[in-house]
């Protein structure tokens, strides 16, 4: 391994960022809790997709598009949000994002057909992109020397929502026999989260700017147009197609192909959230080990799981284990480090814009992931869909990861 790109710190290297107080950590936890609620909302529609499809008579591909179209909204809002952050306070952008997301979630419950429903679903992504970009920017500023680990903490909170959302949503559907009820409950909860943030989180905390050791930062690119960002953009596109191919249509696969009940589907999807709990550890791996190793092994794991999930044993225990593994490898390691390495590819002054590029590319590809995998499944079957969209694309991801120039990234340095 090139000593210039190792993750080990110099002996005696001190912290260059301003110390974070316990009160600030508490406020950051409130922000993470709001993102966990966001994750609950996000996990609900794939769970109710079969019910929506039955009521409105949507095709399989159209249902997949509805499940993942919110990521198009995220893609459209990602880069503009990065520029908006340069002009507005982070707290203002965060609150606006939660408001847009929550209102669109509520309106989805009152949709009259495919046309207005797809608009509301896309709008949820606009709000989520604003919230996610802000929270990542705050985390990267606070923990400048451990950026991937900080992003892992954000994804950890997503894991909490990914567990609670399907479980609670499944029970709400069963309680009222109404797929609209979970959307209403979680939409209203978003406005409650806005009120909590307004009271409990100060602008002094959200606008705090951290610093990073200049010996590390000078290796990052001074422009967004650089080799590593281009390669990571390609990997983010692949990551979006893989991640949202699973998140968007795997619940439909369980319900329609394996004939799972809504409650059982919710249990399996909540176990996926348990795997996401490894996000902090996954971020530590990204801070500690070589980017080529971390990303290539993550893509290899995703490719293998793509075959097993849609072609392997159909029992609930096995599917639960595979779903947990997907959360661990793909969301807990791959997603976290794609975000972290985007930031590490550039100077600290470009953090907001790098985050915006990551959000735009990964979620932009994810917007069509459900439509594509649903179309492949309708024509060739679920086994072919998993192999073509997840396994083969993961092989391309490995090739891109091996082409990174890690000597040009702002990685931790080691004493020669």
UniProtKB/TrEMBL annotation:
State where the protein is found: Cell membrane
Annotated keywords: Cell membrane, Membrane, Transmembrane, Transmembrane helix
What is the membrane topology listed in the Swiss-Prot or TrEMBL record?
Multi-pass membrane protein
Gene3D superfamilies registered for this protein in UniProt: MFS general substrate transporter like domains
The yes or no answer to whether the keyword Acyltransferase is present is no
Q: Where are the transmembrane segments?
A: 20-37, 65-86, 93-112, 118-143, 150-173, 179-201, 229-247, 267-286, 293-312, 324-343, 355-378, 384-404
The record's annotation in InterPro entries points to: MFS, MFS_dom, MFS_Efflux_Transporters, MFS_trans_sf
Domain (Major facilitator superfamily (MFS) profile) spans 27-409
- Report what the protein is called: MFS transporter
Task: Report the source organism.
Answer: Cupriavidus malaysiensis
């Amino acid at each position: 391994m090139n000593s210039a790109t190792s993750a080990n710190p110099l002996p005696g290297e001190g912290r260059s960022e301003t110390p974070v107080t316990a009160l600030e950590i508490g406020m950051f936890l409130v922000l993470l809790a709001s993102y966990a609620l966001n994750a609950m909302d996000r996990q609900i529609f794939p769970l109710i997709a079969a019910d929506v499809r039955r009521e409105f008579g949507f095709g399989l591909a159209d249902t997949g598009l509805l499940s993942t179209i919110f990521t198009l909204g995220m893609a459209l809002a990602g880069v503009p949000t990065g520029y908006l952050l340069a002009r507005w306070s982070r707290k203002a952008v965060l609150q606006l994002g939660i408001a847009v997301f929550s209102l669109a979630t509520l309106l989805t419950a009152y949709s009259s057909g495919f046309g207005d429903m797809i608009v509301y679903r896309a709008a949820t992504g606009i709000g989520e992109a604003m919230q996610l970009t802000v929270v990542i920017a705050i985390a990267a500023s606070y923990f400048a020397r451990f950026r991937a680990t900080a992003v892992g903490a954000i994804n950890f909170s997503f894991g909490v929502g990914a567990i609670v959302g399907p479980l609670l949503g499944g029970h709400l559907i069963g309680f009222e026999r109404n797929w609209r009820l979970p959307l209403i409950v979680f939409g209203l909860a978003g406005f409650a989260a806005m009120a909590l943030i307004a009271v409990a989180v100060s602008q002094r905390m959200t606008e705090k700017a951290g610093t990073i050791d200049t010996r590390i930062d000078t290796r990052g690119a001074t422009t967004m147009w650089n080799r590593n960002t281009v390669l990571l953009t390609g990997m983010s596109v692949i990551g979006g197609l893989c991640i949202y191919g699973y998140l968007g249509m795997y619940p439909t696969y369980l319900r329609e192909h394996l004939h799972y009940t809504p409650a059982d589907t919710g249990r399996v999807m909540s176990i996926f959230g348990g795997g996401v709990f490894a996000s902090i550890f996954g971020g530590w791996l990204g801070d500690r080990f070589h980017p080529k190793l971390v990303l290539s092994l993550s893509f290899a794991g995703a490719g293998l799981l793509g075959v097993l999930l849609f072609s392997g044993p159909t029992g609930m225990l096995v599917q639960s284990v595979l779903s947990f593994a997907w959360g661990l490898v793909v969301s807990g390691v791959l997603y976290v480090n794609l975000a972290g390495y985007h930031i590490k590819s550039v100077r600290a002054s470009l953090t907001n814009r790098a985050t915006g590029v990551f959000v735009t590319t990964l979620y932009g590809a994810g917007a069509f992931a459900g439509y594509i995998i649903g179309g492949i499944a309708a024509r060739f079957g679920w086994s072919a869909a998993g192999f073509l969209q997840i396994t083969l694309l993961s092989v391309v991801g490995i090739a891109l990861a091996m082409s990174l120039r890690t000597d040009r990234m702002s990685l931790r340095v080691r004493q020669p």
